């Protein structure tokens, strides 16, 4: 009787939850958005707690302190780092944003003059062909530029107007993350108890094993990528400032932020830097691009292999596919999390294949070759 009840509940509960979510999305999207917004502090708190837990474990291991002391020190480090960035970097970024907004609001950009200056400085037949084409395009190029600047303006305005609410949400999320870190063992024990209650022992063990693998993959990738991108951002800010690239603090921060996205991140981050430099001081656009290329080469050949790892276990084709699909489905979170999700799925599928081959007595059939496949 208990098994029958459990089976009915196990089948009906996911169906009811999925049906409720679909009904809310279709018939009451405002309510669904309100529910998601209500849970945002908890979601952000979970993310902060997940990332800080590695710092807590490191402090406990190296300094031989208790968990609560490790949590306190980790929070002090986080708040201190953010405060230092706000004190040293934020005023310059705000000034850069204001200058860019003033530049955009001042009016039309004289494309002809800019193109003529570039043509005079660079004596090259290919550059002459390009500049002639731009000048002939005339009005259409001008409209594209103005639309691009308007989009940049709207994006900066959105960032500024959301600073207040984002700050409040961050502090609420930080408080929630502290409680999550403090009650980590209890929360994990309750999660394991829930899984064992609703699944058979072998299924429950498999699910917990998958969660363990997911934790290892996501932790190593996210923490490594965040540290790597922070270093890249600092290097770009310093290099841009030395080369006198316009709005160096803001442009370097953007480059470091987008570096979190695998493969496409450096390209996305370089676009606003080159565009803004081109219209403020055209000669600095090429300088900025060269700096980005050099730093990205240092990152891809030296920093990232040391920090994130030599490889993530999948070929470039699958990484690009995961980033593209993840970005289309879930936006920026999908761009960032697409790769570790793909690595997790690849690990699960390969383990499942190995188990089935072992059951059939064919565990040695091209196993080496399968392991090398993306």
Describe the structure.
This protein is an all-alpha fold and 374 residues long. Among the domains are: 213-307, no CATH class; 311-374. It is 88% helix and 0% strand. It contains 15 helices and no strands. Helix 2 (29-63) crosses helix 8, helix 5 packs antiparallel against helix 6 and helix 10 runs antiparallel to helix 13. The protein is globular and about 75 Å long. The two termini are 46 Å apart. The model has no long low-confidence stretch (mean pLDDT 77).
Q: What is Rg?
A: 26 Å
Query: What is the helix content?
Result: over 70%
Order of helices and strands: HHHHHHHHHHHHHHH
- How would you characterize the largest beta sheet? none
Number of strands: 0
- Distance separating the two termini: 46 Å
Measured by DSSP, the beta-strand proportion falls in under 5%
Structural class: mainly alpha
